[in-house]
């Protein structure tokens, strides 16, 4: 059995590692626990990649559905912001059945400015961006 | 205004915040591992019928806020804790404390936490940080995950304090005004009761989803995933398991190492050699969690994918369950001499 030694703490540069190292507990030569900084671990980095690949796929699919007129931009931003119906409901104050209606393009197009603002606020975007499905990377 | 407060990085947010908030009162005695052990931070739960972020709901830790609550309660330290429905009142209360020179712990959501890299921002609401001052519109933040102190604008802080969804923080603030001493004898008693609670949570808590039973159940479920979910969904599920297990602020392997460190520190207060032997068992369990994560990575990266690979993965968890069961039974059976 390989015990977790200080020198075995993984040092694979992760997205977090570029900003901050992580503290790990590991043992020194005499088996005593000390803390050791880690840049990241390849196993974790790839787990995160799997999650993001899935999200990107869902976002791309949602974008296509909006372009095809099958859904309103709310669906796109829901996926983009990793939200489910319940979370959108929590952030906007709408009921889930209302949001489901707003996911229809023709209902969305008739939404009042006040309602659109609620969605924009929840997605941290402007109403104009919401309508045009515009993303500003930041 | 800036309160005199020393930022210290930790492995896990809440035990770090607890240790940092208690540093003055405890004269630095309550380290992160001690807070984690006394607060009974180690836990396991897998609830198969709940889906989070399109994956399984697996927790390696207790409910947010409980480590601080239990540690303080056990040490006889009064805790002040407040949730808010009004954002204005939440900020007013925070400012009042800061003006009094009181650093405070805050539960926050990670999604809009601006200083986190984008890749790490999910709708996870059980993160903890300390606010220790305000300069202009910037709150001074000691986030125990970060190497150095950081800042959030008042808008950004409000947004994360009022993040929505599961375990919504509702502006939750916690701190202690305690300045009295914490005696070694008190710490000894708290270590024992922390161990007792963790033993209960992992061995005897009723229901099939938690503790050792939960780990074993997860192992058995994983063997069925390939058949039931298909390979693509299984990959997502395993990746989520590993993220819950090894990512910052949570932790399977990582938590075992902290717990092993806790038992070593406990030995300094309660010099009984069984604590050291059991500490080594938790280190071994931590290593096995990590080995399991490597196996999972083999599957979600597409290098592995046969039913046997899933069986191996499931068996690792069964093996871990046995290992930890032995370790917790040994902890349960310790005859305290003091």
Radius of gyration of chain B: 20 Å
- What gross morphology of chain B would you assign? globular
The tally of domains of chain A stands at: 2
Q: Rounded to an integer, what's the Rg of chain A over CA atoms?
A: 22 Å
Q: Which strands sit side by side, in order, in the main sheet of chain A? A: 1-2
Sheet-strand content of chain B, in percent, reads 5-15%
Give the strand tally of chain B.
8
> What oligomeric state do these chains adopt?
heterodimer
**How far apart lie the N and C ends of chain A?**
44 Å
Short recap of the structure:
The complex is a heterodimer of chains A (138) and B (338). Helix content of chain A is 51%, strand content 9%.
Topology (elements, then pairings):
The complex is a heterodimer of chains A (138) and B (338).
Chain A lengths: L21 E6 L5 E6 L3 H26 L5 H8 L4 H8 L3 H7 L2 H5 L3 H11 L3 H6 L6
Antiparallel strand pairs in A: 1-2
Helix pairs in contact in A: 1-2
Chain B lengths: L12 H9 L1 H4 L5 H7 L3 E11 L2 E7 L4 H9 L5 E3 L4 H13 L4 E5 L18 E9 L2 E5 L7 E4 H8 L11 E3 L8 H21 L6 H19 L1 H16 L6 H17 L3 H28 L6 H26 L6
Antiparallel strand pairs in B: 1-2, 3-8, 4-5, 4-8, 5-6, 6-7
Helix pairs in contact in B: 1-3, 3-10, 7-12, 8-9, 8-12, 9-11, 10-11, 11-12
Keywords:
heterodimer, A: 138 residues, 434 Repressor (Amino-terminal Domain), 2 domains, 7 helices, B: 338 residues, Cathepsin B, Chain A, six-stranded antiparallel β-sheet, two-stranded antiparallel sheet, 12 helices, globular
């Amino acid at each position: 059995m390989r015990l977790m030694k200080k020198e075995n703490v993984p040092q694979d540069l992760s997205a977090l590692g570029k900003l901050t190292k992580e503290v790990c507990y590991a043992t020194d030569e005499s088996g005593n626990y000390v803390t050791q900084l880690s840049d990241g671990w390849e196993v974790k980095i790839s787990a995160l990649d799997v999650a993001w690949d899935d999200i990107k796929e869902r976002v791309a699919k949602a974008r296509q559905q909006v372009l095809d007129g099958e859904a309103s931009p709310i669906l796109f931003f829901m996926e983009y912001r990793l939200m489910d119906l319940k979370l959108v409901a929590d952030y906007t104050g709408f009921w889930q059945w209302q949001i489901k209606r707003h996911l229809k393009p023709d209902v969305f197009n008739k939404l009042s400015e006040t309602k659109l603002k609620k969605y924009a606020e929840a997605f941290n975007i402007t109403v104009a961006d919401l309508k045009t499905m515009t993303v500003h990377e930041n | 205004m800036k309160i005199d407060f020393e930022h210290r990085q930790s492995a896990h947010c809440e035990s770090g915040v607890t240790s940092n908030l208690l540093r003055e009162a405890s004269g630095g005695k309550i380290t992160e591992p001690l807070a984690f052990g006394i607060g009974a931070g180690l836990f396991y739960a897998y609830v198969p019928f709940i889906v989070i972020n399109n994956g399984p709901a697996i927790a390696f830790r207790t409910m947010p806020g409980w480590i601080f609550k239990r540690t303080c309660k056990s040490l006889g330290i009064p805790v002040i804790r407040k949730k808010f429905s009004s954002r204005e009142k939440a900020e007013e209360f925070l400012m009042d404390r800061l003006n009094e020179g009181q650093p405070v712990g805050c539960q926050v959501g990670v999604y809009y936490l601006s200083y986190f890299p984008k890749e790490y921002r999910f709708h996870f609401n059980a993160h903890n940080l300390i606010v220790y001052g305000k300069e202009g519109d910037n709150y001074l933040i000691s986030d125990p995950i970060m190497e150095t102190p950081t800042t959030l604008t008042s808008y950004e802080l409000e947004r994360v304090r009022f993040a929505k969804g599961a375990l919504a923080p509702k502006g939750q603030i916690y701190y202690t005004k305690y300045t009295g001493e914490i005696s070694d004898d008190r710490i000894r008693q708290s270590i024992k009761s922390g161990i007792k609670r963790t033993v209960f949570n992992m061995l005897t808590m009723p229901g099939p989803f938690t503790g050792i039973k939960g780990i074993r159940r997860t192992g058995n479920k994983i063997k069925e995933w390939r058949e039931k979910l298909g390979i693509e969904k299984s990959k997502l599920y395993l990746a989520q398991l590993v993220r819950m297990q090894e990512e910052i602020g949570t932790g399977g392997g990582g938590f075992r190492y902290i717990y092993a460190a806790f038992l070593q520190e406990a030995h300094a207060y309660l010099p009984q050699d069984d604590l050291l032997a059991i500490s080594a068992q938790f280190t071994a369990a931590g290593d096995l969690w990590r080995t399991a994560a490597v196996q999972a990575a083999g599957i979600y990266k597409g290098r592995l994918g046969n039913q046997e690979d899933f069986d191996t993965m499931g068996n690792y968890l069964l093996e871990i369950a046995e290992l930890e069961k032995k370790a917790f039974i040994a902890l349960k059976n310790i005859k305290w001499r003091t």
